[in-house]
Amino acid sequence: MEKTVRKILLEKLERERILSRSEFMGLLSGRDAATAEELFERARRARERHYGKDVFIRGLIEFTNVCKNDCYYCGIRASNGRIGRYRLGAEEILACCKKGHGLGYRTFVLQGGEDMGCTPEWIAVLVEAIKRNHPDCAVTLSVGEHPREVYRRWFDAGADRYLLRHETADNAYYRYLHPASMSLENRKRCLYDLKEIGYQVGCGFMAGSPGQTAEHLAEDLLFIHALQPEMVGIGPFLPQRDTPFGDQRAGSLELTLFLLGVIRLMLPDVLLPATTALATIHPGGLELGMLSGANVCMPNLTPARVRGQYALYDGKAESDGGVMKSGEALRALRRRMEAVGYRVVIDRGDYRRLVE
Known about the structure:
By secondary structure, this protein is of the alpha/beta class. The chain has helices spanning 3-16, 21-29, 33-51, 90-103, 120-133, 148-157, 171-177, 184-197, 214-227, 253-266, 276-281, 285-291, 304-307, 316-319, 326-339; strands at residues 54-57, 59-64, 107-112, 138-142, 161-163, 200-207, 231-236, 296-297, 343-345. The protein has a 6-stranded parallel beta sheet. Strands 8-1-9 form a 3-stranded parallel beta sheet, with helices on one face.
């Protein structure tokens, strides 16, 4: 694809916030360093129009690595018998929140597998307790697929946001990544239920997962545009040795950054994390993510004694400050963000739809 055509596509994306399937495929397949740099410049401008130089932090609490699902790419899949399973109690989770609040966190992300031992009512009571103890904070849940009435119960308990990566918007590719017991139709149903209930909703996918094509990615971008989520979480695919995809190559840093820029132009007011996977694949991944259009980081508040067991992919525990105490990791993050012209702020970091 000629440089002038790629520039026209970037201009169209920034102006109209959408491309056709073939245009997305062409932009992705024909990308080069010059196109990426122009994309990132446009993405940074869009980000700063809505959020300035602020970087929002989310205190991540990975409270259970028990999961009933058997996704082929995930290290905590049900059939992985090589990891030690754990489930934090409510008091330990509340202690993590108390510590995080003292450090300056104003959003807590409760993330875990689909653990049947954590009942919907137990999670609802936990959310109520966090909101009671820290009324100035937002609570984000990321605990998978559930019936609409369960999502409603958690929303009524005080949950503000929900993260549920759709993983792929292509039915055939979804089946390639997941067992027959799971369906893209149900995953999408969950996302639309969450939107209708009133959550700030996050979807997302892996970049460079096994068998992924430009057509798959174009389908993802079209789905994200249709859903209009408040958050999008993407990161490079990273293999975990004890999964069916354990011998596959990691996804591409370059592709992930390019997709961050594309999503920022498509949804200029979106909350867009520089993910732990991005930090894992490259030591400067968080900084590069910010310079590509991201505006959120999710440092880990999970207790150190279990952090390494939330093994979604290999190398994760060492990449996210796992060897540091939480306060040290946050101070280091502040310095890293300041070095590239951004600032970590004490703020709930809510989605801000601005009229331009």
